[in-house]
Design a protein that fits this description.
Blueprint (H helix, E strand, L loop, with lengths): L20 H8 L3 E5 L2 E4 L1 H20 L3 E2 L5 E3 H7 L1 H4 L5 E4 L5 E4 L4 H11 L8 E10 L14 E11 L2 H21 L4 E5 L10 E7 L5 E6 L5 E3 L5 E3 L22 H12 L5 E5 L5 E6 L3 E8 L7 E3 L3 H4 L2 E2 L4 E2 L3 E2 L2 E6 L4 E8 L17 E3 L21 E16 L1 H6 L2 E3 L5 E3 L1 E8 H11 L1 E2 L2 E2 L10 E5 L5 H16 L4 E3 L6 H11 L3 E5 L7 E6 L5 E5 H8 L1
The structure holds adenosine-5'-triphosphate (ATP) and magnesium ion (3 copies).
Length: 562
């Protein structure tokens, strides 16, 4: 690529609105330009990197047996009504109406779309397991879009969905994706860890986040200094153990409030949900006192309150009988009986999640006869929300350390939540209809690009790992007005491209200082400078990462750079 009319506008100064290094460098090196808050264009150089990452993801997905497809961004509201997420997803879901006044959403994720496709077209157990994926723009109206493409409102995601006959199958499909993710992030040269994530709000099954260790990360990871233990500190203390159950335990249903702000709203929401037996609710409340009223119209077996940011500010105002079951440290509340009320007042709570499991007479969607200890098991890892650095690791090995992490990927065992809601069943080998068992798996492709820059830069600019570099070589004639320099550079440009190197050719009539500064900013792995010794056929090679420089005769160049 000739740089002269290439759209790669560089900035000398640090843009004032860019707080983190990757955002600053993506703007300065001309990889992206902002359109509006959380919405970015990728300029040619940025797109090249995005595509490199995309291709690594694609290769590893294909290798793991996943099939690529492409789904629409526009999704009808009916689909989201069917899954229950039209209400539940909240203000992050970007909604609009068409000219006929019909409601739609711009897809933040595609469980609904994929599940209906598979529902309609996959009927027999013979077709399963099946994993499908796409690489596609996602839309989320984030409350705080920030750090450039690290948290955008429009961003590129790879999302995959697995469909299995049973939970054992899901375990295998999940492991395949987990391994593929490990390969993807290794190839992107990232220092990452797969950490146990909070599965509470989604139904209490295995889930891992892939975290790039970085101090600009918005999540905190607790990990052991002498074992593999690593978890997001928002992890819940209890996880469902399906194996231990005598009768098959069903999925926990999740209901999230759409960003309710006032006490009135919350109470209203709860009283609506009551009739359907409450399972889980999420309130995002901006530093206002919250009143959470949990009331079962069937027997409430368990109410779990998570995520109060200051346990001491939580007061339970229900009757004495219930109170004795309350453990304010873990937020676990034992059986509260029929029609009991639990009021929790949390001052300045930011996020409160309530999990209620109901003994049911509305079969299907509820847990039946839940027995904590049998159906629920206190996880190997305990509640991490109050854990401190230096505490003994919950797995008994070493002590806990903290690190910030950027979530670049997330794998999740969904179970039958969506297949049941949307009726995706298959006929088993006995001809009996059963819901498919699903998993979902996301990678933030555009976020990964920024995470790579967070990890690979120095004071002069980006230092691309070879695997994702937009070009391999930056070829720079110091002075294009000198015939010998220009001619040798042109010849090398042809020759290197023939050898399948991706070359950025700085054919601009700029001062050497400008060219070298831009070269450092762009951060291509090798810089080849054609200068004064061009007439002798000698060029200078600089390794961006180490700063090493060599003089090489053009004839030995290829041997050297391989
Ligand atoms: P976060 O906790 O950062 O909000 P998430 O848990 O909501 O992310 P998922 O629903 O797990 O995100 O989506 C899968 C992946 O998509 C994430 O692991 C992340 O890499 C990426 N992603 C999510 N939200 C954004 C965003 N706003 N901008 C860029 N990438 C994102
Ligand atoms: Mg999010
Ligand atoms: Mg997350
Ligand atoms: Mg996630």
């Amino acid at each position: 690529m000739r740089q002269n009319n290439y759209l790669a506008p560089t900035l000398r100064d640090i843009p004032s609105d860019a707080e983190v290094k990757s955002h600053q460098l993506m703007l300065r090196a001309g990889l992206i330009r902002q359109s509006t808050s959380g919405v970015y264009s990728f300029l040619p150089l940025g797109l090249k990197v995005l595509q490199k990452v995309e291709n690594i993801v694609r290769e590893e997905m294909n290798r793991a047996g996943a099939q690529e497809m492409f789904m629409p961004s526009i999704q009808p509201s009916e689909l989201w009504q069917e899954s229950g997420r039209w209400e539940a997803y909240g203000p992050e879901l970007m909604r609009f109406k068409d000219r006929h006044d019909r409601e739609f959403a711009l897809g933040p994720t595609h469980e609904e779309v994929i599940t209906t496709i598979v529902r309609d077209d996959v009927r027999s157990y013979k077709k399963l397991p099946m994993t499908l994926y796409q690489i596609q723009t996602k839309f989320r109206d984030e409350r705080r879009p920030r750090f450039g493409v690290l948290r955008g409102r429009e961003f590129l995601m790879k999302d995959a969905y697995s469909f299995d006959k049973d939970f054992n199958g899901l375990d295998e499909s999940y492991q395949k994706m987990f391994d593929a993710y490990t390969k993807v992030f290794t190839r992107c040269d990232l220092n990452f860890r797969a950490v146990v994530a909070d599965s509470g709000a989604m139904g209490g099954k295995d889930t891992h986040e892939f975290m790039v260790l970085s101090n600009v990360g918005e999540d905190t990871i607790a990990y052991s200094d002498s074992s593999d233990f690593a978890a997001n500190i928002e992890i819940a203390p209890v996880k469902v153990d399906y194996e231990k159950s005598s009768d098959p335990v069903k999925e926990l249903e999740t209901v999230e409030t759409p960003g309710k702000k006032s006490i009135e709203d919350i109470t209203t929401f709860l009283s609506i949900e009551q009739s359907n037996c409450i399972k889980s609710m999420l309130f995002i409340v901006d530093e206002e006192p919250v009143l959470v009223l949990v009331r079962g119209d069937h027997e409430v077996n368990e109410v779990k309150i998570k995520h109060f940011f200051d346990a001491s500010s939580v007061e339970l105002t229900n009757d004495v009988e219930t109170k004795k079951w309350v453990n304010t440290e873990t937020g676990f509340i034992g059986p509260v009986g029929i029609d009991k009320e639990v009021k929790v007042i949390a001052d300045h709570a930011i996020e409160v999640i309530v999990n209620a499991v109901c003994g049911a007479n509305e079969v299907d969607k509820h847990f039946k006869n839940v027995n904590p200890g049998r159906d629920f098991q206190v996880a190997d890892y305990t509640d991490l929300r109050n854990i401190q650095e230096g505490d003994p690791s919950p797995d008994g090995h070493g002590t806990i350390q903290f690190k910030e992490g950027i979530e670049v990927g997330h794998v999740f065992k969904l179970g039958t939540k969506y297949s049941e809601a949307l009726g995706a069943s298959f006929l088993n080998d006995q001809g009996k209809a059963q819901p498919m068992v699903m998993g979902s798996y996301g990678i933030g492709v555009s976020r990964t690009v920024a995470a790579i820059i967070e990890e690979h830069h120095d004071e002069d600019g980006i230092v691309w790992p070879l695997s994702v570099a937009p070009f391999h070589v930056h070829l720079i004639p110091v002075n294009v007005k000198q015939d010998d320099q220009r001619e040798l550079a042109e010849a090398l440009y042809e020759k290197l491209q023939k050898k399948r190197y991706d070359v950025l050719f700085d054919d601009r009539a700029e001062r050497p200082g400008v060219k070298f500064k831009d070269a450092d900013l762009f951060g291509l792995p090798l810089r080849i400078t054609v200068g004064k010794k061009a007439s002798e056929g000698i060029v200078e090679v600089k390794v961006r990462k180490t700063g090493e420089m060599f003089e090489v005769h053009e004839n030995d160049l290829q041997e050297m750079i391989e």
